[in-house]
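Hi X.,

You mentioned you wanted examples for the new student's onboarding notes, showing what a folding record looks like when two proteins sit in one file. Here is a clean example. The first protein comes first, with its sequence line followed by its C-alpha cells.
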Amino acid sequence: MTKLRISRKKAQERVSPAPLFILVAPQMGENIGAAARAMLNFGVSGLRLVNPRDGWPNSKAAATASGAAIVIDQTQVFDSVDEAIADCQYVVATTARRREVPLPVLTPVEMAQALKKRVAAGERCAVLFGGERNGLSSDDVAHADAILSIPVNPAFASLNLSQAALLVAYEWSRADGAAPIENPMSETQTATREELDQFLYRLESALDDSGYFFPPEKRSGMVRNMRAAFSRASFTELEVRTLHGVIKSLSRRTDNQKD
C-alpha cells in the first residue's frame, strides 16, 4: 500500500498542462481504465466521459487503470459533447473516416505540435475519441477544429480505444519544444467552444427564421458545414462578440422591414 501511495505521488508530480481526453459514449469500463493508464504513462491526466454506457464510477475501469487512480478519481462525466467541450478553445477529433465534415486533417505529429503550441499559450485543448462500436458521429466531428488521421492499415483500420489514447498521449509527450502560438491580431484569447456554440445557435435560429435552410431535409448537412467553416477560423472572444452584434443588427433590420 505504501509503495502504491508513493507511485501515485510521483505520477502526480510528473503531470503538467496537457490536452483533455474526451471519450464519447465509451462502452466497456476496462477500455476506459486502459485509456486512463495510457494517458498517465505520458503525463496526461484530464479525462472526460460523455454518456458512458455502464455509468460512472465504474469498478472495472478503476481496476484496469491500476496505478492511474489520479486520472480515474478526477474523471468528469457529461451528457453531451457540447457540454464536455464548452470550456475548450481547440478540439481535435480522432476518426478513421473523414466523413462529410470539411475540416483540416492532421497527422499524429502535426496534431501533437498544434496541441503543444496552444497549451503552451494557455489555451484549453481536447481530443475527442469515439466509442468502441461506432466511433464519432458526423455531428460529433463537426464540433472539432481539426481531424486526426492515424496512418493505419486501410484493410484493418479499427483501433482499440485505449490504443488510440496511447498513441495520442505518446505523440503529445514527444512534442516538447514547440513554441507557443502568437496572435498579433488580437489581445483577447481564442473563444471557447461554449462561446462559439452560443453564436452558432443564434446564427442558426436567425437563418431558420429567414428560411435559409431549404430544402428542410438538407438542414443537418448545411449546419455541419457551416459549423466546420466557423471552427476553422479560430475566432477570438472579441470577434465572436462582434459577430453577435452583426446578427442583432441584421435581425433588427429584418424586423423593421416586416413592419
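Then the second protein repeats the pattern, sequence line and then C-alpha cells:
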Amino acid sequence: MKRVLLGFLIVSTIVSISFTTQAGAQELLGAGATFPYPLYSKMFNTYYKEYGVKINYQAIGSGGGIRQLMSKTVDFGGTDAFMSDEKLKELPPILHIPICLGAVSVTYDLPGNPELKFIPDVLSDIFLGKITKWNDAQLQETNSGIKLPDLNIVVVHRSDGSGTTFIFTDYLSKISSEWKAKVGRGKSVNWPTGLGAKGNPGVAGLVKQLPGSIGYVELIYALQNNMPVGSIRNKKGAFIKPSLESTSLAANVVIPDDTRVSLTDTDAHAGYSIGGLTWIIVFKEQNYNKRSQEKGQEVVKLLWWMTHQGQKYVKPLKYAPLPKAAVEKAERLIKSITYNGKSLLSDVMK
C-alpha cells in the first residue's frame, strides 16, 4: 500500500510540474504605456480567447515599461517614447515593434465645453505658465466666436514617466524655442506650472474634476469621458482636430528600419500635429534569464498577430492602424528575433 501511495505521489508530482511548466509558457507578462491600454486590453483578451495564452499587462507608463524590460522582469515592454541611442548602447539589442498610431489630444473643462482652437505659441505659453486666464486676448482672438470665461487656467500634466508626455513635449520643443531651452522633451520633465496625475486615466479624471483645467491625454481617454478636444493649427496653417484620418496623415513620412521616428509637427496639410507611434519593445535575443524557447516563440507569435490580424481592432478604439510601410518594417524586426541566434519566427511558421 505504501509503495502504491508513493508511486501515486511521484506521478502526481510529475504531472503537477508538467502542468505548471506548460501553464507558465501560456502566460506572458508586459508593462508600460497607458497610451494604448484600451487597445491592448481588447487585443489581449481576444488573443487569450483564440489561443489560450494569457497576457498580463500592467499600464504603468512608458518609463516603467522600459525599466521593467531592462531589469528583465517582463517579457515585453510598452512605450510611446522610443529609447535613445545612448540608452540602447548600454544594453543587449532591443527592438521597437510598432503597433499603431495615436493622437495626443488637448482637453479642458470649461462652462459648456466649447470646441476651442489653439495656435502653437499660445499652447506652449499656457503650459509654460505665461498665459494664466482663459479670457486672455490671444486665446480670445483665435476663438472669436466664443466668449471665454474670466477663469484661471489650471494645467494638468503627467506625474509618471510617460510616452504621452514624450510626444507632447516633443511637439512643444519643435514649435517653441523657449520650451525647448527651458523644459525640453522627455518622458518626465520639470513642469513650469500645474498639477500632476498618474497615467492617461489620472489626467483625464483630474481635468474633469477641476473647472478651468487643461491637460493632454490620448484621444480615446477624452472620448470615453465625453471631454472636448481642441483643434491645433498645424504647419500649413490649418486648424486640425485629432482623428483617425488626421493622425494617419501625419505618418506619411519615411520610417527608418528600426522604426524609431517622431511624427509631431507634421508637414501634411490635413495632418494632426501631436501624435505618434506606440511600440512593444523586446530583447532581440530571447535566451536570457533561463527563459525557455517556447516562451520566446509565444512572444513572436503575439507580435506577429498584433501587427497583422490584431490591426482590425485598432480603428474601433480610435487609434490609427499601421501604414503598410510600418507593417513591413515590423515584419523584418519580428523575423530578426532569435533564440540562441536562430530565428524564432522560422520555427513558429513551420
